Amino acid sequence: MSISSRFQNPPEQNTKLSFKARSFLPLKHNSLLKIETGVVRIITWHEDGTLVTLGIWGPGDIVGQAFSKLEPYQIECLTKVEVTIVPLEGWFPFTDVMLAHIQQAEELMIIRSHKTVEVMLIKLLGWLVKKFGREVKSGHLIDLRLTHQDIADMLNSTRVTITRVLTQLEEQGLIHRLPLHRIVLKEEELWHYEI
């Protein structure tokens, strides 16, 4: 069951806000934001300025600073985004939302724990297919504009390394890159890939 099917908007909740790609959602301590359309990523960074992606969220997910004690903490729109303001108290099962955040954090932690960037990238692409993918003739399309730098931030790598590994994966026939930073994952080829 998806998060979106578990949460119903209460009658008084109808304030929708729209944001452009690469803008930041406002952070309020007394409310959360339900993503109606689009995709966001939650980020922080180290003292040296290294960006760290904490999660990627899409339609039906609920995000907000109330879930974290990290500073700095920002929610960046990866696409055009429309959100609904959700009061912290009152209407939804907070436990379910917290579990969803914990589960995503664990999934990303496992992906990042692999020894090589190549394996991390393959695992990340598979995870993105499950969360944001759709089936197309040649495989599964991750219909999300992620730059090589976005992917590097998620895996604590460099843009140059991600570009090199994506090129290798494409040469091996595991992925096909499309315009606008979109990727088709050829899952049938991954079954034969030795990790």
Automatic annotation (TrEMBL):
Gene3D superfamilies with a match to the protein in the record: Jelly Rolls (2.60.120.10), Winged helix-like DNA-binding domain superfamily/Winged helix DNA-binding domain (1.10.10.10)
Biological process annotations from GO: regulation of DNA-templated transcription
Domain HTH crp-type: 115-188
Keyword line: DNA-binding, Transcription, Transcription regulation
Keyword Ribonucleoprotein: no
SMART domains reported in the protein's UniProt record: HTH_CRP
Pfam families listed in its UniProt record: HTH_Crp_2
PROSITE patterns linked: HTH_CRP_2
A single GO molecular function term of this UniProt record: DNA binding
Designated name of the protein: Crp/Fnr family transcriptional regulator
Lineage: Bacteria, Bacillati, Cyanobacteriota, Cyanophyceae, Nostocales
